[in-house]
Amino acid sequence: MTVAAALAIQDLKAGFGAQILDIALPAASDAELDGVVDAFHHHGAILIRDQAMTPDDLMAFIARFGEPEDHTQTRFTLPGYPKIFILSNRVVEGRPIGAHNDGVGWHTDYSYKPEPVMCTMLYCVEAPAEGSDTLLADGCAAWNALPPEKQAQLEGLKLHHSYKHFMATREFGAMVLSEEMARANPDVEHPLIRTHPANGRKALWPSTGTVTEVIGLPGPEGLALIDELVAFMTGDDFVYRHKWKAGDLLMWDNRCTLHTGTLYDDTQYFRTMHRLWVKGDKPY
Ligand code: SIN
């Protein structure tokens, strides 16, 4: 058994996220990689810049965090690598090589599944000189900042999530699900306040896109509450904004965060990312 190495680390934002310095992941020792995994679990998000990762390197690295998850839409996975999903606006021989503007809008990944993914990793292959930032919102800090009477009002509420609704209504790439896809992705319910299984901390966990209803607060009243909470959680106090460079690797814990991509001038720039997920567990 190895002992996790002490790594050079600095905060991404006070109290949330860590940048790990002076490490080359493909050549790192077991002890250093254990230190990276520890840093992820301790800080909720990690950034490692200047990496040169092949698809095999990405697969070996993600496996340190758990079992890699499949992707719901399979047409944009990297050939030969079904667990690596491509986000891109590149078109090669007349065909898009990836999903474009896929993650724009505050959300947590796979929220429409009974066991949403534990973490998301993005590895930047190429990035625009401006725009296309990824924003991470810290749900624990947002929860802790709510007054006790608001916390008491929210505790115990559940949200209805629907992949069918999400795909039919999203701004980019809306589609009506095939019968088969609809059957494979039935609606689910998850708590609005999620408890982290490893450290017991509570997080606001509202998401957008997949939420159709707050159970017990049907109609516009419930949806207005979700809008209010998402606006609160995604205010500057709780958000880290990542500006991409090729070779950046950013990972976040979906059990206690929301994230969103942002737009860029896709007539002028290319953006290509490799996205990997790690399986999660049932939220409570
Ligand atoms: C995502 O939501 O998975 C991707 C976000 C991004 O492209 O910045």
Q: How would you describe this protein?
A:
By secondary structure, this protein is of the alpha+beta class. The protein has one domain: Clavaminate synthase-like (Double-stranded beta-helix), CATH 3.60.130.10. 22% of the residues lie in helices and 28% in strands. It has seven helices and 18 strands. The strands form five sheets. The chain has an eight-stranded mixed β-sheet with strand order 1-2-3-16-8-18-5-4, covered by helices on one side. Strands 15-9-17 form a three-stranded antiparallel β-sheet. It has a three-stranded antiparallel β-sheet with strand order 11-10-14. The structure holds succinic acid. The site of succinic acid (SIN) has 10 residues, from strand 17 and strand 18.
Give a quick rundown of the structure.
The protein is α+β, with helices and mostly antiparallel strands and 284 residues long. It contains seven helices and 18 strands. The strands form five sheets. Strands 1-2-3-16-8-18-5-4 form an eight-stranded mixed beta sheet, covered by helices on one side. A three-stranded antiparallel beta sheet has the order 15-9-17. It has a three-stranded antiparallel beta sheet with strand order 11-10-14.
Annotate the secondary structure layout.
Layout: E1 9-13, E2 16-20, H1 30-43, E3 45-48, H2 55-62, E4 77-78, E5 81-88, E6 91-92, E7 95-96, E8 119-126, E9 134-138, H3 139-145, H4 148-154, E10 158-161, H5 163-169, H6 179-184, E11 188-191, E12 193-195, E13 202-204, E14 211-214, H7 220-233, E15 239-242, E16 249-253, E17 257-261, E18 272-278
Parallel strand pairs: 2-3
Antiparallel strand pairs: 1-2, 3-16, 4-5, 5-18, 6-7, 8-16, 8-18, 9-15, 9-17, 10-11, 10-14, 12-13
Succinic acid binds at residues 87, 102-103, 109, 120, 134, 259, 261, 273, 275.
